[in-house]
Write a structure and sequence with these properties.
This protein is an alpha/beta fold and about 300 residues long. It contains ten helices and 18 strands. A hairpin with a 2-residue loop joins strand 2 and strand 3.
Amino acid sequence: MSVREFVVLGTASQVPTRHRNHNGYLLRWDGEGILFDPGEGTQRQMLRAGVAAHDLNRICVTHFHGDHSLGLAGVIQRINLDQVPHEVTAHYPRSGQRFFDRLRYATAYRETVRLTEAPVDADGVLAASPSYTLEARKLSHPVESYGYRLTEPDGRRMLPGRLAAHGIGGPDVGRLQREGRLGDVTLEDVSEVRRGQRFAFVMDTRLCDGVHALADGCDLLVIESTFLDEDAALASDHGHLTAGQAAAVARDAGARHLVLTHFSQRYADPEEFERQARAAGFEGELTVAHDLLRVPVPKRR
């Protein structure tokens, strides 16, 4: 049975708090797991969330600030300790190669797993499979940063009424789906486009073209909202978004489910992020993330 869900391992920006671990997020997509921005403590949070090293197929790092990458050393060593039987691919800004190297080889350990380095240096597609296409877009932050977007290929939804009108049923339906034609009837005659699901992960950034491109039409948009709106100038100075800005992005992009995360320790009331997001006009499903939260990817339209 396929599972598509987003697992929140940590939600704190810059420093962890008593209630928030450093960043860390896992996207389960059918049989694969993509780990985003493993900050300090990610390995322990994985344990608490029931995420095993064997679940990881890709690691995507947006940028090399510590709250998004210091957990890499432990995660990589755990992958090797547990002798994960499949290849794991790591994506990260090429400009931070020296940081990745230091974290990968921070201490002595025995390498048992094929860890493929696939650094990012421009907007574009990073990987494509029958299940998804993974792409990156550059963001606006004091250090080079990329956001990630995963898109499922469009499929076809069979229309029972049209199938019946053409007298097609039983095994012939499967044959038509596989071959695209059954006699004079084409797949397009008896089906409609079923849009693939779309997911985006947008971390530390100011508003920029990359943010909007990543968010466009998303079913699940995970986006940083480090600051509240009254601190918009501070957010811009440090290369971040406010709750209202993040929600406006989701509103304009037509996102179905918005997940706000990456909160400054200066704020004690997480509900204020939701209030400001709603005030910005976002009317879809809205979640203010907390550690160990699980969010299902919305069902296809």
